[in-house]
Specification:
alpha+beta, 20 strands, single chain, 20% helix, elongated, six-stranded antiparallel β-sheet, 603 residues, 23% strand
Amino acid sequence: MEGLPLLPGYSFRDPTKTKHHISHAFDFINGYRIPKTNPNIVGPGKYPKDVDSIGHFSATPSVRYDPSLTYGRVQNYPFKQFLPHYAQYRGKSLCFRAYFKQSIHESPDEHYRVRKVNIVYFLEDDTISVIEPSVNNAGFAQGKLVRRSKIPKDIGGQYYHWKDFDVGIDVSFYSTVYHIVDSDIFTREFMQSNGIDMGPPEEMPEDPYIKKRSEKLPLTTMKTPTVDDKLRRFLEYDGKILRFYAIWEDDSELGEKRELIIRYYLADDCVEVGEVHKKNDGRDPFPLLLHKTKVPKNWKEVPLTYPSIYRELTEEEVEEFYSPKDFLVGDTVFLFARRLFIYDCDPFTRNYYRECLNIEQKPKIQVTFPTPTLPQHPHPPHTGIGTTEDTIQNVLRVIPKAPKKDVIRMLHNANKKLRYTAVLDKVHPEDEQRSFVLIYYLSNGELEIMEPPQRNSGYTFTRFLRPTHIAKPNTDRDDPEFYTPADFYIGAMITVFEHRFLITGADLAVYRYMQANPDKFPESTINNVRNYMVQQGYLREEIEDRTKLNLKAETKECLDVACCDPCTDPPPAQQEMGDYRPFGMKKFEDDCISVQNVPQHFN
């Protein structure tokens, strides 16, 4: 066993060893710790060690052993490089938090303001800068108050050093006293490494004006946004729209009841309001009253600090938007201060509410729309220049056009005239012998007056009145009533521009026109003109023809009843009177004589 090498597997544990403690390495001699002379000879439990295992602990003579042969020569390190002050502290600065009080004069709300600043001390060149952090709506200039420079401490010319700063002291920069309340971590570590213990941090005083203003602002509440899968909603509800039919009753001075369509997009909860245009409704064809957007319920409840002048509301400022449960038939919704009454919805919307929301929409509500009344614009009075139609055209158009004519009447009555003879009502003695011809044009209803020449009368054949429309006396000037052929009969008095004409005769064409158009003339006028024609003998041939026809009819009637021959045996009454005329001729003449009794307005 003694010749085996000390390798794993060749050594065995001695089971007789019971002590395994390690002996001490120092001995106390005269009260001092003295290391043992050879502590490595004895192992644990004070058992002696093997000689081979401690052979390497023997000291080698220094004469025969050179450590440089094993470990190499010892390197001579260079001296530490010298760094100047500005290079050693380049980019390093000390930051102190401070404040100063600024007096406010002639202000009822505040007497002073607390302005918070940061004092920055640059270690590389011992310069100081004072910077004021920006505050919203402060009302005064902010930023760098003191530019970076060395600041004198007293009149003697000494400058501030970093050893002059500490928490809780006052420093004066150019007649402004700053009170230091705290510093950053690097500043405290730097001061402590240089043997200066800084005081505890102080509380920064609050500005009384900012505190007073913050008390007036409402408390801001935070809300946790709901988790909404927009992609799922898009894939499920894209193209699905809820349509509601509503009425907007505009309460303004010139407001009216307008019909609208509310569209609710289920994909993104946006609302769109479209207009319903009708023919001649007097409005520009704008398709939408409200573009597609989310509509808040209380759109006026926004924070006082919200810049509503140039920015629209977002989901962060609005507490609640309109949802499908807010749109029900029979309810009134307010969309941006406009009151809309919902009276119906489409079938898809009714099925969606019934299946998805378990809400049954009400049936359609009958709504009546007032019939628009067109305003009546009265025409201005006739100026007397031209005709009334010319005056109306000047009112209707800036550049007047010629009045429209009745072309059908002109084509049907082209070159048709009704001529009457008349005399002038005696006003002057020289007008007693004057006679006139009144010509009425059926094509346009104008009246022309001609004066035929008379021998030794002093008047030549001339036109007394050019063709024009003649209004009846005592009629409205702006809406006059003109003379028509029904107003012309024998004995009628026609007033033409303050001249009175008495009709004394008529042309045969007048009577023929009356026979062709009996519905345009009263019966008394027709009888009056026919009586005049009979007296003048214009109807002699017509009377003879009619007499023959009546005679034939009476002869046939007598033969049928076996009466006497009217040609050979005249009636006894006629034989006694000595006036024997055919019965038909006498009957026609009696009819003509009976119409001589003209009504009173003809006399």
